[in-house]
Design brief:
mainly alpha
């Protein structure tokens, strides 16, 4: 035999089926794993959904708290604006001549050219 024919004959001898082995049944499925991947996937999916829900809940609560704080700050600004307006009106009235005279008289002051009188032991 030529060398090439010997190699081919050896190869055929190694790949030829053994006479005592039966061929395996061919199925369309892969062998089933003993690890319950579907159950583990469900658990991981529940954990991921729970984590996303928890993060969303925290963000929602922070948004509600920020909205409440903004409303409180707005009320404070309105109150301070009213107080500012009242103080401006009071400042304007303090610079009027009639207000200055009234406040000076309540402190016991007299105008230039007036004669002060002091009454003592009025009801005792």
């Amino acid at each position: 035999m030529p060398p090439r024919a010997q190699t081919t004959a050896r190869r055929d001898a190694h790949t030829a089926p053994l006479p005592h082995s039966r061929p395996r049944a061919v199925t369309g499925r892969l062998p089933r794993s003993r690890v319950g991947w579907d159950r583990k996937f469900r658990i991981v999916l529940i954990l991921v959904v729970g984590l996303i829900g928890w993060i969303g809940l925290k963000a929602g609560l922070a948004l509600v708290a920020a909205h409440a704080q903004a409303a409180a700050e707005t009320r404070l600004v309105v109150s301070l604006q009213r107080q500012h307006s009242a103080l401006l009106a009071q400042e304007r009235s303090l610079y009027q001549k009639a207000t200055i005279i009234r406040d000076a008289r309540s402190l016991g002051m007299v105008a230039a050219g007036e004669r002060p009188f002091v009454v003592v032991n009025l009801g005792r």
